[in-house]
Amino acid sequence: MIETSQFRIGTKLEVEGKLYEIVDFQHARTAQRRANVWTKMKNLETGQVLERSFSAGQQFDEPDFEEKPMQFLYIDAGDYVFMDSKNYDQVHIPGEAHKDVTRFLTENMDVKVQFYKGKAITITLPSSVELRIVDTQPGVRGDTVTSAMKPAKLESGATVDVPLFVNAGDKIKVDTRTGKYIERAK
Fold first, then answer.
1. Using CB atoms within 10 A of its CB, is residue 55 exposed (0-12), middle (13-18) or buried (19+)?
2. What is the pTM of this model?
3. 70 in the same domain as 117
4. What is the mean pLDDT of residues 123-134?
């Protein structure tokens, strides 16, 4: 059982038979009243975000997940196809609910997929990935001094802000949790 005092960003819980992940939360207490916990939760099946308050001390069922290492293969009619690395089974996961994760996916990337009651629920990418820049404005001599940024389109289709000295064709490291540029890859 998960109690409201154990809420953290990323905590997964079951509320009214549906799976949610806590995106944001805040403990609040008003004068002469019981403490409440305000939460912003994302439905893991639909991707819908819900705001809800709970009484302090309320308990929830902790879902039993199974996590498998898988490899991303390709996109098929809006579904992302993953292959189990051990038994070569393929799983189709709808991309609508996972837009924040799928923007950094490239073919043959190793990821972790969490299953709940035999159904794929979440995709977990490595904390950082190396991606090639497909399109950006060319760098100009002397641009290395300032900390100005410019948009760059990556091979996965995502767009991130990069320093002015980075050019098309360069490989960069991106933080998949925040979507921000880390460094140029070696």
1. exposed
2. 0.69
3. yes
4. 88
